[in-house]
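To fix ideas, we close by showing one paired sequence and structure record:
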Amino acid sequence: MNTTDNTTHRVFIVELADLINRRPATIRGWDRTGILPANARPERNERGWRYWTEEQVPIIKQWIRDQELRPGKGLSHYNPSPEEVEAHIDGQRLPRDPVSVALRRGLIDQELAGKVLAGDITIAEAKRVHKGRGRPRPAVAA
């Protein structure tokens, strides 16, 4: 484990997960199995929580790239460009809310997404309108 002084900013697992675009459970698994490089392993605070230093974050990002921890790595026919690899790494954890998923899958367009987020129509109505099967109903005043 690394030793740090108390003046160094501690990066706890949720913050690290956001910074490297991975889930906390993934990071815990890397730590538990010992696959993180020695200079990227976490310390533990007095409560036993994992933390890293800000200096370790770029080391972990580079390790992810070096290990090719990205989607499609095991597919022999998949040979992405460096830009595509970067996009995969940056977008591995995309938002899972219904509006983002519908947008990503092409089930609704940006305008309809705005109406859903504003509360003017439901996601189901937006999907019907996008498919050309209906018109949005006016919002009912509460």
Observations:
- DSSP finds seven helices and three strands in the chain.
- The chain has a mean pLDDT of 80.
- The two ends are 57 Å apart (CA to CA).
